[in-house]
Write a structure and sequence with these properties.
The chain is of the alpha/beta class. It folds into two domains: about 1-100 and about 210-220, Rossmann fold; about 100-205, Rossmann fold (3-Layer(aba) Sandwich). It has helices at about 15-25, 50-70, 85-90, 100-110, 125-130, 135-140, 150-155, 155-175, 190-195, 205-220, and strands at about 1-5, 35-40, 75, 95, 115, 140-145, 180, 200-205. Strands 2-1-3-4 form a four-stranded parallel sheet, sandwiched between helices. Strands 6-5-7-8 form a four-stranded parallel sheet, sandwiched between helices. The relative contact order is 0.15. The model has no long low-confidence stretch (mean pLDDT about 95).
């Protein structure tokens, strides 16, 4: 089994993507392999709605390429699930969004959850998007920011963990949250130790998404044409 993970920005180094492959591979069975790649054009980082708009078209192109190359499933490596509906219109393999899968997991295990994002400027965009989801409308207590630049989040692990720990503690104490979703995949891998220190379940979308992708392949759980009609390109867009 081969799973393609597509980064929704183009500035990730090959070294960092290789590290992501190793990290995510730990959540898969021995006969499942993961390959991580960035989009080739579009934003360097995903910081706003405009970045999402330009990234989405490239995500569609990369998903079509992945299916042609024989991948069995695709994971969007972004909590915003950038381009997910359009991707599903263009491929017939599972397309997994970390955002929606994490919300589904939290709905089963939590009464109130907080979503973490990287910087305060992202809170309105994250909140507005999540309010379109019925689970979030029912159970989300807040969106909180680490206020650490995404570049530092990736490069300074000690600082990132301290920021995450502090915000998680505030979510428990002030929001009465019993669940916390790491709403930026740059936070992947930080939750396990913090969870052992707080009376809360921490959801790591990167690992939830990759494991769910494997399960979807094994159980043939994939979107149907009735829900996502095949894109016929009658509008003559460039793919």
């Amino acid at each position: 089994m081969k799973i393609k993970v597509i980064m929704s920005d183009k500035a990730m180094s090959r070294e960092t993507m290789d590290a992501r492959e190793e990290m995510l591979g730990a959540a898969l069975s021995s006969d499942a392999a993961v390959s991580v790649d960035c989009i080739k054009r579009g934003p360097d980082e995903l910081d706003c709605n405009t970045d999402e708009a330009f990234a989405a078209a490239e995500m569609v192109k990369e998903s079509i390429k992945a299916e042609k190359e024989g991948y069995d499933a695709i994971v969007i490596y972004c909590f915003s699930d950038v381009g997910i509906d359009a991707m599903r219109e263009n491929v017939r393999i599972p397309v997994i969004g970390p955002g929606e899968t994490s919300l589904a997991a939290a709905s089963m295990l939590c009464n109130r959850f907080t979503v973490l994002t990287s910087e305060s400027v992202n809170i309105p965009r994250t909140y507005r998007r999540l309010m379109r989801n019925g689970i979030a409308r029912e159970k989300m207590a807040s969106v909180r920011a680490l206020d650490i630049p995404i570049g530092e989040l990736r490069s300074n692990s000690e600082a990132a963990e301290e920021y995450i720990r502090a915000v998680c503690r505030k979510a428990v104490e002030e929001d009465r949250a019993d669940g916390i979703i790491l709403g930026c995949l740059g936070m992947a891998g930080y939750g396990k130790r913090i969870e052992s220190e707080l009376p809360v379940k921490i959801f790591d979308p990167a690992f939830i998404a990759i494991a769910y992708a494997e399960m979807c392949v094994r159980t043939n759980l994939v979107h149907a044409e009735a829900a996502y009609p095949v894109f016929a390109n009658n509008s003559h867009v460039e793919l």
